[in-house]
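Please check these two lines:
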Amino acid sequence: MKFLLEVTLDDDASAEDRAGELGRVLRYWGGNVHHYALRDGDRETVYDSGYREVGQWRVIAS
């Protein structure tokens, strides 16, 4: 299986702010992924700290 995480970062934000948001997304989803079966087709929308949709993760067969 493949676990794909796609996140769009704000081009207008500073590198530090982009890194902080990405770190938060990775910590949050890394800590919550155990709630999912992680089967082909599983997916979830990813939000930033302002609860704006910034991407998604999904599981696909290899």
The two ends are 5 Å apart (CA to CA). The chain has a mean pLDDT of 94. Residues 15-32 form the longest helix (18 residues).
